[in-house]
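Work package 3, deliverable 3.1, input record:
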Amino acid sequence: MVGIRDIADKAGVSISTVSYALNDSDKVTAETKKRILEIADKLHYTPNLAGRMLKKQKTNMIGMYIASFGGYFYHHMIDGVAQVLRENNYELIIGSGGSHSREFIPQHLVDGAIVLDSDFPTSLIERYANAGNQIVVMDREIKVPNVRQVLLGNQAGAIQAVDTLLTANPDAVVFITGPSDSNDSQLRLQAGLTRMDQCSDKPVLVIHGDFTVDSGHHAADMIAKMGHRNVGVFALNDEMAIGLYERLPELGLKPGVDVKIVGFDNDSLGPYLTPALTTIDYSKHGWGELTAKTLINMIEGKQTVKNQVLKTKVIHRGSLGETEC
Amino acid sequence: MVGIRDIADKAGVSISTVSYALNDSDKVTAETKKRILEIADKLHYTPNLAGRMLKKQKTNMIGMYIASFGGYFYHHMIDGVAQVLRENNYELIIGSGGSHSREFIPQHLVDGAIVLDSDFPTSLIERYANAGNQIVVMDREIKVPNVRQVLLGNQAGAIQAVDTLLTANPDAVVFITGPSDSNDSQLRLQAGLTRMDQCSDKPVLVIHGDFTVDSGHHAADMIAKMGHRNVGVFALNDEMAIGLYERLPELGLKPGVDVKIVGFDNDSLGPYLTPALTTIDYSKHGWGELTAKTLINMIEGKQTVKNQVLKTKVIHRGSLGETEC
DNA sequence: TTGTAAGCGTTATCAA
DNA sequence: TTGATAACGCTTACAA
């Protein structure tokens, strides 16, 4: 491997001079700098990251921990993270599915971490944070030093969803939940139920799902059994709403007519459904950006806001039938 | 930061003894080993990766370079890669979208690399390989030392697709291609056309697409203009086939009846279409596994096969209408 | 079985 | 403006 020492030999200078030249310091004359850079180029020199990291105690890499790579969802969010990191000269390492690379955090292979993975134990995050590692979480609240959160406005979104659903004036309202250990699901459900309680005396039914298309199918069966003809459904994510669209017609129920539906997440499929799905939207890209910015500020010792919440908004499409706004 | 030295102090031994104990060497007595490990645990010691990497000149990390995180496609493939790596004690670093982390390869931050990204220049791969880095490519052929390829059986798959399509006895055959710079598209198109030439004298039309749903829409328009009533279409990927399904009915053409369709990739949506999409399948997970295995063998100096090709098979569903097999 | 010490490639301090 | 040299945290001959 060609190292800084080889360049020094070839250029007839010391390794420190080479180091200065490579790091564009103004402690060397422009001409020796130029000469050294040329030689480095000729020898196809590339710095050894391990050496640099060891010395500087900084890697300029950040670790991002997600549950899986599945779904359109992560794509945009990660893209937002990656963009901000790139702009600030950080590299992104992604660990998915309980990867062993979590160890990168205490081993100082990353300068900080972003967590969006409910399988990543809170206790572990707290341990790492206590050891001085900077972490931003996107899926829970952790109130210890060195941890910040950038959260989705689940409650506000759920309230928007319920309010929107009620404009369609359904005879009864159904909530289809995510898995019971999902923080998102819990928050949406609770805020939605509270809102129903405040604003309406329509009957409410909660069907337990798990954020998959399949549980949408299952929910459709249950709704058909209810026998109502004018049901309003708040599917706590769009995937389950898609499951409804798939199954309801087989049961003689028309989405948007017999069953009014509002989803959550603004999945890319929504507009393609018939009728197009009304849903709660938020900027996935923006979420990623904000998260990355927060982490960089923490790492670089700048002021950060302790809790940040991402705004949601309603996307009105046809799945509530014809309502006036 | 608590290091090996702190443990040595506390245990009243030298740092080398600690190092041996931590690396489970049999050069230390079981009891001192135990004592040292306990102290390490109590101090919450975690090894500093940079130090180890620097000394060993091995990181046990491998870099994977993909175009983007989008699509169900990558999910399974990456999962296959990740699984094999985990089993062999390697960590996975993923760089997407022309990330700067390509530099990890020459900087020896990764022991090897996997490339599935047509934006990753072949010249760069060759340069890195010449510098001694081990690389496996999944989307092209590169005949230089230190590079191996694990490729999809595009040609065999295309032949299967054409043969299957011809069993439906269409009056004319249409190919919808991917982007012209896609190696996959080129190989599928060429093999498909050659097969048509050999086995049939039906007229053939090539419509240029770009592997997106949108270009499926566009192709549907062109097909409608042809005025045929019994067209066979080989969409070079499933996404474009989905585009056909979306648009054809608007033009008065029924998929599976007026237009027989065969796709490629076995997208998860296929079974949900009406009629379900006949397509060419291959194991995405297996592809990832094979790729990772190949790379590990290269890194560990074991024998490897120069070129490996992944098998494809036809998934018969309803989009060819009623055909006898 | 344990300790001493060299060295991995880089950066940074201090002298020259 | 440059050079000698000591770290950074760890592994590993070699010596004891």
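The interface with chain A takes residues 1, 44, 46-51, 53-54, 59, 68-70, 72, 74-75, 78-79, 82, 86, 91-97, 99-101, 103-104, 106-109, 127, 131, 246, 272 of chain B (CB under 8 Å).
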